[in-house]
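Subject: two folds for Thursday's group meeting

Dear M.,

Sorry for the delay on this. The cluster queue was jammed most of the week, so I only got both jobs back this morning. I'm pasting them in the order they finished. Each block is the input sequence followed by the predicted structure tokens. Could you check whether the formatting survives your parser before we put anything on slides? The first protein is the one we discussed after the seminar.
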Amino acid sequence: MIAGMTKEKENSDNPIDILKRCKIIREKHTKSAYLNINISGEWKLYSGDSVQTIDTKKPIAQGKDYGTYPLYILPSKRSYFKLETSEGSAILAETHLPMEGGYNFRDLGGLESKDGKRIKWGKLFRTDDLYNLTHNDLLYLSSIPIITLVDFRCEEEYKALPDKIPAEVKNHYYLCIEPGRLKAYAKSIHTSKNDVINAMKHLYKLLVTEDKYLNAYEEFFTYIQDQEKLPLLFHCSAGKDRTGLATALLLYALDIPKDIILKDYLASNDYLADKYHPLIEQNPSNKYLYTVIPEYLESALNEIENEYGSIQNFLIKRMHLNIDKLKNNLLY
């Protein structure tokens, strides 16, 4: 729920992080939009179909002081916004996309790197499965438009719950990362939560040590580095483990601070709460299958550091990332 900040604000003599005090909210079922603002003084909000086409001649909303304000925009399209306040200006969009048939659907835009740059809005999206997306959901995604879809699930998974694909998708890649099936092993353990946690930590270690899984992530990064394939959406079944690790590695490459990476990783617990609540109620041990904890991600990152010396070495030497080029393409 953090939005992006313009250069004007970054260079302010007395900077205030507008992004932590203002956000765009889109309602899941109606896709109605609201601005939540927690800054005193007068403000104006402008909109466009992309960041580049925001019309700054005529505001779509304006007001004064704190509150939540409805925005009268088309529900079938994604919009991007420029907020001007007495404290500075910022580019905003919703981080959590309003998917009626999805849960963990997020834009990575707006996350801040160590040098104060931001990930561009509308380029990189992470999510859980797309099987239950509605017609309105697909229209919304087509308006972005999503160009490339990367599915980390294996054949058994995607045949059982096939993706519903937005009309504008040109590239659809299956990069099978099979350790998701280890959850069946973990699910069979009922002696203690520690058994399940240890099984999940083992899963994460496999993701960064087995060549067939590393090759899948390496291929994923070739698509991320190709601007012709953006905007790109990547997912697995829940969007928290295979996708969660892919996201963490991508954010490390973009020099996002570790605390922000961890916060983004753990946010899956909030977004997936409704999806997996019945399964967790059936068996308390399922909590550690259908949520994430820091130890899962750390087990993978520690394994990488032990093998390669640092995450950056791993990204350059094993994922073959051109990190400077990636930053130039995806940060502003």
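Second protein, same layout:
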Amino acid sequence: MIAHLQRATTTAELIPALYDLDDPRGRRRPRLIGADYRGDKQLPLFGDLQEVLGGGVLDAPALRIGSRAPEQPVWMCSVRSDPHHPDLSDAQWADVARRLVTAAGLAPAGDPHGCRWAAIRNGDRSVHVVATVVREDGYLHGTYRDPFHVQAECTRIAAELGHLTRTVTTAKDHRMPVITINAEPSGSIVATGTGDDLSATLLRHAGFQQIDDWHGRRHRLPTTTPRPEAASIATHATQMLRAARYNVDLDPKLHVEPLDTPGRQILHLTDTIRGAADFAELAGVLDELLDPDDGILVRLQEALESASEQITDLDPDQYELSDRFGAASDQLVTAQAELAGVLDEVQLARSDTAGTADVLAAEDLRTRAALARSITTPATLRTGPSAAANAAPTQAGTPAAAPVRPAARIR
């Protein structure tokens, strides 16, 4: 379906075009298939439209506000359907007209003060929607975005009717699309290339609003979003899309580095502690945690103590809440006292470990040297239980007498 918009000063100006009076070959007989006159409910909603267009039924709100009315208060939208598909009935075209004025914001559903409109047919495969841009309450309808809203609704209607041509998908169509997130000159943050439902869902989850118009589907952040927050949202959306294996082109002006929060600093310290290879490295990391003057533990204790005092200053009746922070601060003081001198013990553990290693190395060296000596000593010099057992017995059956050592010489 294709929509065409035009404006006129009065509805009577539309009669020659709708009746085709300039064509000498014949005359059309347009008919009224739907209408909503708001305040004038007694007028006919169907039949000949001469009474509606010629009698100024739709022009009445504009005449009522006088000089405040725009120069061309009459709004007409002509819609044509695809000639390759069956034509719609009058009831279907009337429903199309009702959806168009609702999508444009001329006559929202449930709004008794909306604009008057009428749906007219003067041929096949088309309908003309005539309305006034002056509401029943005297306010004017803004028409700036009407072409986009009307064409987007026509696309939705054609899709529902099955009039959109289906394309044959190939292997190339299954590649992940490239999504671009840019900051437009107007200041809007817009994401394009999001034609599939998964990327649309991720962007809506990040905070983008989906827009469907004749440009196609795209996503935009609300214009009221502060620029720092918009950049953070765009960066977060990019991370989610890339995690889903989309190719995302993010405007460098919208890239935001992760904040180096205190929590992240402590998390990094925890990871360093877990990865310590020896006591020397562990002692250096623990010094950042337990330093009595500028360590994390003492700073956390001071923060809790300050919170307790500040609560009391703001409201003395909140003493119970203040006491809870004070109790937590006292527990950290106790923890500091419990861990006093622990860094020295870590240092000693490093020294003991080094000394133990030296002792083990020395004992291993002595063991290897003794084994080498036992291998090179002659068998005749070896003494022990085996050598005594092999000694020859005497005739009396008693062991041989031990050799007599010469007496020591006394000088």
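Two things I noticed about the second structure. Residues 167-174, 377-411 have pLDDT under 50 and may be disordered. The longest strand covers residues 2-8.

Cheers,
T.
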